[in-house]
Amino acid sequence: MIPQYFDWAATSPMSDRSLDIYVETAKTYRGNPSSLHKEGKDAARFLQQERDKTARLLGASPRQIVYTGGATESNAIVCNSLLWRRTPGRIIISAIEHDSILQYRHLFESKGFDVVFVPAPGGYVNPADIAGKLTGNTNMVCVMLVNNVLGTVQDINGIAYAIRTFQSTTGRPIHFHCDAVQGIGKMQVDVSSLDIDSASFSAHKFQGPRGTGILYQRGETLQPLSRGGGQELGLRAGTEHVAAIAAMNAALEETLSNLDDRLAHANVLRRVFEQELARFATISLISPPADGMGEMVPNICTIAVEGIPSEVFTRILFEKGFCVSSGSACSNNTPKKGATLLAACQVSPDKASSAIRISFGYDTTEDEIRMLAQTIGKESQTMGRLTRRR
């Protein structure tokens, strides 16, 4: 039996178009883009064409696009840039950030930075809470675009306004970084419309290859994570993976060209899923509902299964033929990370310990989402009866 896949937020299957472009590019451009012979110059010319394409698709300029190994590396470049400062200041981080940013806390603090976390009740960061933490020595603010567990969309423009308003009173720049990984394919994303200084993206979240990503930087103020041959504007040393970059762009273009239809389909699936789950008293939503007041993406939904630990229920569902997650795949090896994130959203410990995340893609069908919901409901009832007998 081939399991039905409901873990797109962790990684999405590479599209046929992306895979075809990867193979075609790898065969055609075999030279190193930094080499001076014809094969190298051909690769360099092609790489520049791809950079132009990435910039166009994201609403940026080519000089603002840096290719990386993924969003974790992009986040690391931004965070490590702060370590070059002679005088450490304040760093404001939302409490629902990805581990690739949260785990910098200890390094920042060891270097004398004042790290302040901002909670996110219900999964939303309030711009006023960010404004209340700003000080004259604030160096950076980090707030993600879409939370990878709850699917909540943050008010990036509102937060940017609070930052820029405060910044105008001090005359000191504050770097605003946005982890935008979960945005592509789930909502409209145009970096030119966001008043941010940098953003990170991963190809495998929108059906591109793993190990490839993008760092958007509005101005050339960042420092390299590692030094070497000066590739990628000097920010990311190492030979560029031209085939993977082309495959990523193919997936990005395909995703954005079909975005409206895919979002409409995702909204239908989300409502069907919630309607089916509503029949079972043992299930409750942790993510905001589809028709709630807060902005959210429809493709990510976290629920609580009453009285059953997340790890147990995800195994039960896999045995029934469904791949789901108990939280962020990147934090599965971090003890209590999921519970900590949900605590920052003011989710009760009981619900946090029984949370599972369902995320789906454009080719998920209504029948599949109904079957998953019904299986979740029936298995939760069965497990609940067994638990009560004990």
Written account of the structure:
There is one protein chain. The protein is α/β, with parallel strands linked by helices and 390 residues long. It has 13 helices and twelve strands. The chain has helices spanning 16-28, 38-58, 71-81, 99-102, 105-110, 127-133, 156-170, 242-257, 259-277, 310-319, 337-344, 349-353, 366-389; strands spanning 4-5, 65-68, 90-94, 114-118, 138-142, 175-179, 198-202, 213-217, 283-285, 300-305, 322-323, 355-359. α7 links the parallel β5 and β6. α1 runs antiparallel to α8, α2 (38-58) packs parallel to α8 and α9 packs parallel to α13.
- What share of residues are in beta strands? 5-15%
Q: What average pLDDT do the residues reach?
A: 93
Share of residues in helices: 40-55%
> Helix segment count?
13
Radius of gyration computed on alpha carbons = 22 Å
Q: Strand count, sense and closure of the main sheet?
A: 7 strands, mixed
SSE ordering:
EHHEHEHHEHEHEEEHHEEHEHHEH
Strand order of the largest sheet: 2-8-7-6-5-3-4
Structural class computed from helices and strand pairing: alpha/beta
Low-confidence stretches: none
